[in-house]
Amino acid sequence: MVGLKSAFLTSRQRDGRSRGFTLLELIVVITIMGILVSIALPNYRNSVLSAKEAVLRENLYRLRDLIDQYQSDKGKYPETLDALVTDGYTRKIPPDPIAGEPWVEIPPETDSASGETPTGVFDVKSASSQVGLNGVPYNEW
Fold it and tell me: What CATH number is given for 25-129 in this structure?
């Protein structure tokens, strides 16, 4: 048995020197890890941005739906987005995940037939002027 064990020992182990990695082995491993990280990092960033865009899309859909429900129920647009909370249409206004700022509230257009301008919030948009992965700025979604 002793002879079999000595056959698997490297020359460094048999000489009694300390065991470890050589500088060349460490450089090769670090280089390989650097290449793998440089490949994975852009994919990670795109997946995070894609998730934020999905949240933005969902929040815009929900807010626009709530504004439409409010207008249908009350016959007028909410004066602010906070009116949706106080009147019980939602618990809280969802945040803008891209800009991190309050939503841009769009007022309704002037009615050309009657000439009067309705007040309130007709639509919402993101405050960010950055361009999304689809090439369209977030404030145009």
Answer: 3.30.700
